[in-house]
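Sequence in, structure out.
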Amino acid sequence: MISYKPIAGLELNMMGAIKRAQSSSEHNVTEDSNQANAYRAMGNTIIRDSNPYLWTDPNDPYAVPVSVLPYGGIYDRNDYRMNSWDFRTTATYNKVIKNTHIINLFGGLEANSVERNSSWMRAWGVMYNFGDIGNYDPDMFDKLKNEGADYYTLSGTLERTTAFFGNATYSYKGRYIGNATLRYEGTNTLGNNRKSRWLPTWNISGAWNAHEENWFKKLMPTFSHFTLKGSYSLTADRGPYDISNSVAIINSLVGWRPVGSDQETTLQITELGNSELTYEKKHELSLTADMGFFNNRVNMEVSWYDRRNFDLIGPITVQGVGGEVDKFGNVADMKSGGFELSLNTKNIKTKDFEWNTTFLYSHQYTEVTNLKNNARVIDLVRDNGFALEGYPVRSIFSIPFNKLTNEGLPTFKVANGEITTDDINFQEYSDLSWLKYEGSSDPTDYGSLENTFKYKGLRLSVFIVYSFGNVVRLDPVFSNTYTDLDATPREFNSRWSSSGEENITTIPVIPSVRQNFLNPNLEIAYNAYNYSTERIAKGDFIRMKEISLDYTLPKSWLRPLKLENVNLKLQATNLFLIYADKKLNGMDPEFFNSGGIASPMPKQYTFTVRLSF
């Protein structure tokens, strides 16, 4: 780093960095392992003819399968290398005029490059028990060629970014503060079009410290401080790093042929180009009020924000001209907003006792305002939600459940009010208005409440978290067939078992062999039940997140032991749910992933002793 100050208040800096990282991983499959022995399993003709790891010469009509790994094991190696450089030069100017006007100017440019390379290779016939020597069979390479497989691969990527930026801040007597930022950035991973590859972003913000005004003193100590802040900005992100089809992506490969000697190298269009692919952008307006009351015994901060995202990157289904049905582009716009509240209070404060409370609350919403794509039934009813114009980003829909038949089979109300058991096409793209909107998989309201009590050296903390406003898709446990290896949930205790129970339960019957024979599409019916309105629960919860108790021993007790400090702490985490939807049947609504509800969060108990000498 080089720094130079030519005049008072002006500082020039230049810095650069070069980084090189390399890592390797190995996988050793010894000759005694099951994987290696699978390549030579041919104890009889039945095993030999059924073993896909053996090799049969396609040029010999009378050939029998033989082993391509008669000796040794397998050695895999992966190597990853990264070379990068960064260059940055900046200029900073600070000026204070008559202790009234404070001016700060900052600007510069930066450039960086990241080159990543990886390689993989697999060695066959490694004799681990004989000094790691190689004893490979030439038939192995014929087998790999005929299967279109590799015994080594090489790959590399190059990312480069350049940016010019500037920032100006002005403050008048510490009361009024204005800030402006401008950044002009370009990257090689986006479209060739200049408007796509290069983008200016900016931010304008300001703050008013009302407690610096002379008239504010009349409000003290009822009003301790008050600050009002606001900003408006255009920011951008280049989007997912695995999407870079600004130009056509053409990869070379060895084309498959029935005979290895006929193979030849070819070129393949992996992704069609999209020269208009550009940054994901966002306009944001935010306002924040920070205030304190009663000599800062009560402190509150309220924030409101409104966002407009546009040019969001995602897949779009096209007509297939050019050989690609699904391609990536800037296909969506959305809006979001919300507000946040933070409240800190010192409820009681005496010489020996304190009681403090911290309350946090956040509300947010999202809505897809434009989406250049179509959704199928299976997309909208899946567990982690899907985007649909006019709804939240991760919306969950359900197939409307009607009732059970007199045989205990589920029925559903589909398009045009039709009642059916199995006439449901999960790949349907047509009108999906018959599906029921359940809600978002993301909570709309969440926060926490913490109370802390202190008495001399004793401290007790109780921390509660909460979340509301989302729904959860229950596990898809229902099927038209089961085996003795299947584990069934407690809902099965209330399933239909005899005629007339369709009026008192909505849990379908376990189908008999006869029912499956007479209704060959029962698999569709039970899959539809898994994604029906009966398999939705609220994701709302209130959790006792943590209770901790710690005690700091008095100094007078420690002097004879020559200790400076001793602290004992007992901490319990994830103790229990205060509230959750009973329909979850004990499953944890806070910890779920695609595929349904996961295991409950474990309880943890920790005892800590801290000593200072």
